[in-house]
Design brief:
single chain, alpha/beta, TIM Barrel, 2 domains, 8 strands
Length: 412
């Protein structure tokens, strides 16, 4: 058999395949650019718009610390790690809220138009004041009403009025996100893109972004059986930052009885698994929902609330949901304790495996590049949330923050 010129054939075939796959290559880069760079908040706090004021963040921090101190022995018992408790106290004093959503939807309710107009203007100016005084959280935004017909015009008016008030009072839009609730169609996402584009032009605002709240089964499964949430992500023109699961609306739509509605219910797990697959590689992040069992009242009630919250936050983290909702200041201690413990429990092992991989040290685990990426992401998140110090991680791994970020969140 005659021998072939391998170099020539390989070059020829490579050129042919480049041409055949050019459109697919471009689509892959456009639709799945990789994870977002930068820090993801570990929670979002929802506050009704009429209760928001510029000093709310330090006020919540003080209230959370008071709740912890009132039941100090109980909290220490539930957490079981004095260093984690100390880190929680430090976090509550320095940065009690990472992401704040000023709510004009379910937490706010239906109001007369003049009342909601006034609250939108007042809250927008208050957020600008908080930003100017250095008391705002790193991330913030609003939740408007649904774009379904009965509330559509009210949602648009509040969206425009709030941003106008925020910008007019000197507030910036860095880290600002609008939550779009109860999405039932791809067309609503496309309408939100249009709303953002028009508002940017009319208000001379910076780039406006939004997150999709998955609260209806229609978001997960379309009439033809497709995963509609995936289409929603790709219909957002790069403006969708996250998918947030809505525990109680989604469960209720699925017919789950009130006592059994939970972030851990099978209907929740199914929805969140679909969301996870839909968001993978797109740069869109994920957030779990909330629990309405609050750690308030007598010691029995506080124990139940904290213990449940600790378990639910840990469960979400183990399943790759690194963010969730908090509804009350007393949930902040358990949010941070569960998060810090999650990272600290596995940090030493992750650091060792990263160092072994780059030092080419033989160990009992043969990590592949994909796992190294996951290890780097885990370690980076530990630093970003305050569970670990950057200098300690660098000493243990030989990797600085920039290198960890490069490994954890590569782009195409």
């Amino acid at each position: 058999m005659a021998r072939i010129d391998i170099d020539h054939l390989a070059l020829e075939l490579g050129t042919e395949l480049d041409a055949r796959l050019a459109d697919a290559d471009a689509a892959l880069v456009a639709q799945f650019p990789g994870d977002q760079a930068g820090r993801q908040p570990i929670h979002t706090v929802y506050v009704p718009a009429d209760r928001y004021h510029s000093a709310l963040v330090p006020e919540w921090g003080a209230t959370a610390l008071a709740a912890l101190d009132e039941r100090r022995a109980l909290f220490a018992e539930l957490v079981g790690d004095d260093e984690v408790v100390d880190r929680v106290r430090g976090k509550l004093a320095a940065e009690p809220i990472e992401d704040l959503r000023i709510d004009f939807e379910d937490g706010y309710g239906g109001r007369e138009d003049p009342v909601e107009d006034g609250d939108a203007a007042t809250a927008g100016a208050a957020l600008a004041r908080s930003l100017g005084e250095g008391e705002a959280p790193p991330f913030s935004g609003i939740r408007i009403k649904s774009l379904e017909a009965p509330t559509r015009r009210r949602a648009v008016r509040t969206f425009v009025a709030f941003i106008d008030a925020l910008a007019g009072a000197g507030g910036g839009l860095d880290g600002f996100v609008t939550t779009l609730p109860k999405v039932t169609s791809v067309e609503q996402v496309e309408a939100m893109v249009h709303l953002c584009e028009r508002a940017e032009a009319a208000l001379d605002a910076g780039r406006l972004r939004f997150e999709i709240q998955v609260e209806t089964p229609q978001s997960i499964l379309s009439p033809d059986g497709a995963a509609l949430v995936a289409r929603m992500v790709h219909a957002s023109a790069g403006r969708c930052t996250a998918l947030h699961y809505g525990t109680y609306d989604y469960s209720a739509f699925c017919g789950v009885a009130a006592p059994y509605q939970s972030m851990a219910h099978p209907v929740a797990d199914h929805a969140k698994l679909v969301m996870q697959a839909a968001a993978a590689g797109t740069g869109v992040r994920l957030s779990d929902g909330s629990t309405n069992v609050l750690p308030v009242g007598d010691e029995v009630a506080v124990r139940r609330g904290w213990d449940l919250h600790l378990q639910l936050v840990r469960r979400s983290l183990e399943r790759g949901y690194y963010q969730g909702w908090d509804l009350h200041p007393a949930q902040l201690p358990s949010r941070y304790a569960a998060t810090f413990a999650f990272y600290r429990d596995g940090l030493a092992d992750a650091e060792r495996r990263l160092r072994d991989y780059f030092d080419r040290t033989t160990s009992g685990i043969l990590d592949e590049p994909a796992t190294v990426r996951a290890l780097a992401d885990y370690t980076l998140r530990a630093v970003q949330c305050g569970a670990a110090a950057a200098d300690d991680v660098r000493a243990a791994t030989g990797l600085d923050g920039d290198r960890l970020a490069e490994l954890a969140r590569p782009t195409r």
